[in-house]
Amino acid sequence: MIDPMSVFILLLGAATPILFAALGELVVERAGVLNLGVEGMMITGALAGFAAAYATGSPAVGFAAAALAGAAVSMSFAVLTQFLLSNQVATGLALTLFGLGLTAMFGKPYEGLKAPAMMPGPLRLNWMIWLGIALVPIVWWFLARTRAGLILRAVGENHDAAHGLGYPVRWVRILAIGFGGALAGMGGAYISIATVLQWTEGMTAGAGWIALAIVVFAQWNPWGVLAGAWLFGGVTVLQLRLQAAGVAVPVQLLSMAPYLATIFVLVLISARQKFGRSGGGAAPASLGRPFYALK
Amino acid sequence: MKRRTLLGSAAALVACSALPALAQEEKLKVGFIYVGPVGDGGWTYQHDLARQAVEREYGDRVETTYIESVPEGADAERALTQLALAGNKLIFATSFGFMDAVMNTAKKFPDVKFEHATGYKRADNVATYDARFYEGRAVLGTIAGRMTKSNKIGYIGAFPIPEVVQGINSAYLHAKKVNPDVEMKVVWAYTWFDPAKEADAAAALIAEGVDVFMQHTDSTAPLAKAQEAGAYGFGQASDMANFKPTPRISSIIDNWEPYYIRRVGEVLDGTWESHGVWLGIGDGEVVIGEITDAVPAEVKAEAEALRDKIASGEHHPFTGPLNKQDGSVWLAEGQTATDEELSSMNFYVEGITAPMPK
After folding, report:
1. Which of A161, B35, B259, B280 is the most exposed place for a label (fewest CB within 10 A)?
2. Is A191 an 8 Å CB contact of chain B?
3. Where does the sequence pass through the membrane (chain A) (predicted)?
4. Among B179, B155, B159, CA closest to B168
């Protein structure tokens, strides 16, 4: 039979890129912004991270560069949606297309090159896996226990009230978008530097969309994001392992499972709202709504 | 001036100005749609090399364009229509899943000629072409059977379609021939190109104890995993020379150049006709890449001998006696599989324990 430990180790690797991206998006959405450009920021991070790691021979420099690149492209989204009040859904989709196109163009010289090897961390898992797991309690603590986190949540729940209290709604959101971009960039870089060890066009292959689904699945809770990333990553790995072990299992069914779970959670959330039960679980009230202050 | 003469002279004028254009031969526009990016280092990369060869061969007489990373769905028909409307008179569609999109588009553009790789549906203006990859797989299987220490060899398949199933069976049969203890593990990725998933598939095989594997997906990601784990792999569709001498110990290369050059030439001189061809090692369309020094000399010689026997037609990779996975008789002693049987192959041969996906 399949050794569960080896599945778990493979799972951690498969879950890490979506864990990073989803944690970043969680913070963005808690601030009331819906950024559908996760895939675009991930692929930008994948290229920038690979290029920097290749040039310097250091994966750590690669991840730093990926965070910077992800944050940088997210700023185009921030300017468009926060200052020019463009539609967040359309702008996010445009950011994804922009990232995919831009990296396809600038990535050509890096095709066929190999990334430098990563240093193994404790328990033969690399440091980025540990960092991803460590970020979960940090993000949770920030949102739930700090004043800055409280302001961020207030901005996401009711931006008019937050503005009335004198909080800089726009700047809180811009910082959150930048943070989300940085984490998405690092998630993308994990694919190019740690999973695949090279650059190929379009290599994130939809991971950004899975990250978006996980945020909903997690009901905007960091611990839920960890569970969701492990569920999605685990199912991917498990179905491959079951196949390798020669177990007859309908692959399509397993591949479908996380999405079914997400839809189930969505139904649960709306049912709860319908019956008037408030509290955790629902989306931030100002999510996706543009904010402008009349002077 | 009478209106009639005016019209007549105008017509003459138009005719005169059109004449030089007629005299100067018009460029043949040739379009390509690819399922992956040209930088995949595998399947699409190889088709694009052949496209470049066409440009080199005919120079100013042709003009080629390509659309890369076209998904095998509704988008394919849009891309094909776009190419046809742009004036391409010959269009190469280079993936199995483009088949229905090609047929639909070909109906709408009867004066455009289509070439579809690895499909089976044809029309007056749709030809199909394919390569006998299973011949190459026989050679790789021989090397894999000799090189494995764990007696477990692996196979990463894209989709359970005949083209891929042939390769699995062929590789297994020839590995088994040189190493009776060999076992075959199969993982289906359900994608032609998704580096992260392909890497995970390779990792899953390695975790199952596989130490040599083949792939029928397009990226070099599985080789990168093999390198990390100290396993052996093979170049797929392209040489994948970056991974030489290990983990890439040999490769199966698709060489589309001769075919593309020939077919473009036939359109240029007006002799193009629809057909379905299936070329192999003997025709130079399937090429075994350099077998590296990581492979012992006697294994290398054995593999090369098999390659040459296949090329000369002396050996058919599917020669009886062979049973199907369920134990029923498929080929009698000395009987070889027909092309029809091969092109609809949807079963494993006896000895492979993995279940065939439905």
Report:
1. A161
2. yes
3. 34-54, 61-83, 89-107, 127-143, 174-197, 209-232, 244-269
4. B155
DSSP reduced 3-state for B25: coil
Say yes or no for a CB contact (<8 Å) between B203 and A10. yes
User: Among B154, B195, B210, whose Cβ lies nearest the Cβ of A196?
Assistant: B195
Dihedral angle, C-alpha B136, B139, B140, B142, nearest 10 °: 160
Task: Establish if A200 touches chain B: CB-CB under 8 angstroms.
Answer: yes
The answer to whether A108 contacts chain B (CB < 8 Å) is yes
Contact call for residues A185 and A44 (beta carbons, < 8 A): yes
Between A10, A198, A202, which is nearest B69 by CB? A202
Both tokens of A98, joined, read 């922009």
Closest of A227, A206, A244 to residue A46, by C-alpha: A206
Interface touch B224/A246, C-beta < 8 Å:
no
B287 and B239 Cβ atoms separated by less than 8 Å: no
Task: Give SS3 for A160.
Answer: helix
Q: Is B86 helix (H, G, I), strand (E, B) or coil?
A: coil
Q: Is pLDDT at A198 greater than 90 in this prediction?
A: no
| B354·A111 Cβ contact <8 A | no
Nearest to A205 among B196, B355, B357 (CB): B196
Comparing C-alpha atoms, which of A219, A218, A220 is closest to residue A229? A218
Write down the pLDDT at residue B1.
Answer: 44
Give domain B10-131's CATH number out of 3.90.190.20, 3.20.20.30, 1.10.1040.20, 3.40.50.2300: 3.40.50.2300
Homologous superfamily of domain range B133-253+286-343: Response regulator (3.40.50.2300)
Given this chain, do its domains B10-131 and B133-253+286-343 carry the same CATH topology? Answer: yes
Q: Flag if A17 and B224 touch (Cβ within 8 Å).
A: no
